[in-house]
Amino acid sequence: xxxxxxxxxxxxxxxxxxxxxxxxxxxxxxxxxxxxxxxxxxxxxxxxxxxxxxxxxxxxxxxxxxxxxxxxxxxxxxxxxxxxxxxxxxxxxxxxxxxxxxxxxxxxxxxxxxxxxxxxxxxxxxxxxxxxxxxxxxxxxxxxxxxxxxxxxxxxxxxxxxxxxxxxxxxxxxxxxxxxxxxxxxxxxxxxxxxxxxxxxxxxxxxxxxxxxxxxxxxxxxxxxxxxxxxxxxxxxxxxxxxxxxxxxxxxxxxxxxxxxxxxxxxxxxxxxxxxxxxxxxxxxxxxxxxxxxxxxxxxxxxxxxxxxxxxxxxxxxxxxxxxxxxxxxxxxxxxxxxxxxxxxxxxxxxxxxxxxxxxxxxxxxxxxxxxxxxxxxxxxxxxxxxxxxxxxxxxxxxxxxxxxxxxxxxxxxxxxxxxxxxxxxxxxxxxxxxxxxxxxxxxxxxxxxxxxxxxxxxxxxxxxxxxxxxxxxxxxxxxxxxxxxxxxxxxxxxxxxxxxxxxxxxxxxxxxxxxxxxxxxxxxxxxxxxxxxxxxxxxxxxxxxxxxxxxxxxxxxxxxxxxxxxxxxxxxxxxxxxxxxxxxxxxxxxxxxxxxxxxxxx
Length: 603
Fold this sequence. Notes:
It is a single chain. This protein is of the alpha/beta class. Among the domains are: about 230-450, Aminopeptidase, CATH 3.40.630.190; about 475-570, Alpha-Beta Plaits (2-Layer Sandwich). The chain is built from twelve helices and 18 strands. The chain has helices at about 30-35, 185-195, 195-230, 315-325, 325-335, 370, 375-390, 395-410, 440-455, 460-470, 505-515, 545-550; strands at about 230-235, 255-260, 270-280, 285-290, 295-300, 300, 310, 310-315, 340-345, 390, 415-420, 420-425, 435-440, 490-495, 520-525, 535-540, 555-560, 570. The protein has a seven-stranded mixed sheet. Strand 16, helix 12 (about 545-550) and strand 17 form a beta-alpha-beta unit. Helix 3 packs parallel to helix 7 and helix 4 (about 315-325) packs antiparallel against helix 5 (about 325-335). About 25% of the residues are buried. This is Transcriptional attenuator, LytR family. InterPro entries: LytR/CpsA/Psr_C (IPR027381), LytR/CpsA/Psr_CW_biosynth (IPR050922). It comes from Klenkia soli.
């Protein structure tokens, strides 16, 4: 029995499918924003050429296998336009023999239409877009960048990068380029090489340097300790309205110098008041003595307790004793118009104070080489000075040292000293018991105005000097008593300070003794000012009466003055003033006032 060959299935031939790209979707925004373009004339369809018939190829029928899957002639393309074929074929492998082929797919002939053959025409030119009808213009040239309007300039050299430095030349190689340096000797080697004398000198220099440093530190500490130990008060009012012409007082320095607490004195008699005006260059100074009992107008001021003190007319010393340093400064500025820059109060009653009532600035410490060479003495002087002085808050011990050095170094005649003009001394108000001093208002104004303007005392005219010499009559050496005691009327002032009641004390005792000799005692009062010796004050027209009183009181000194009010005053300075009988024709004693010795700082 003949076996037939197994039937071989023909392979499946895939029909090619024409792929056409999908038209791109136009953006909605672009479509909406694009301007309308007029459509051109429609083009006729192109003629499709007739397919060329091909002769049929004889093929043997291929039996269909149940497992064979015929590919469809047409298929729906997916949206992407790509047809995915099978990854594996179900057709079995071809065996030996000719490969069978599938018959061709018949193509339908093109449909016959009655339309005429299209005529090819060239489309019309596309019209320009709206807004571009004008002729094409070239764009303007690009303007130059700011700062490049001028001609081209060569660029500056490029600065070096931060942190980079040009490389330095390589150092020489020790032993090759330069000889090998020997190591520095150690401290022990250097000391061993030194001679014994040089080592001793080095030790001595170190010891001296340490000693000098310790001494300097001691003096610096001593200065600050003494400065902080000094009493200080709030007293200055440089911007007060009573200061006159402050623009003329910028370069000058005014000190208010007080001497308080003098031995054996109390109340106003224990106060000494001076105004010291020092020039800016330190080459000249003016010292003005103001009587502590002078009547002055004290403006409104603050007491040390902070209470407000009302304006009052009072003796100058009462402004300090009752109102405090601030009221005294205001009273002095009201009297003089000077701006007080520093306050110095020297306690004359202290055991170490070297000043006197006539010149409190003598108590200022002197820093010389002798004192600096003795630290114990330096400490004693500075600490004693700190305990005896009272300053304002703006004054230091350095200012005091500078003031003392300036006053001691002034040449002869560079320090001018005078007292303020007085209109009346020993003035006792009606019903009063204390003598006061009335100042000459016009004379004081001229004096202080000259000091403010020029920093010196006013010049005295020749006629004024002659008038003063004529009115000031000095006692004659061979004078005698011409008036009996009963023709002399006088005032007795008690300046001892032993009592506050004029009816008791040395003044009352002297008045009683004079009355017993026939003198007429008009009034007995207290003299609060400090008086060194008993004085017989008299006016130029009362010289005969003064001689009679001086003959009765030999210890008293005749003192002519045009400020006693035309009478005679006996100022009792000692509690045991002797009074003796006097007769007409008796000799007048020639006792004169003791000469004022020059001082170190007041001339």
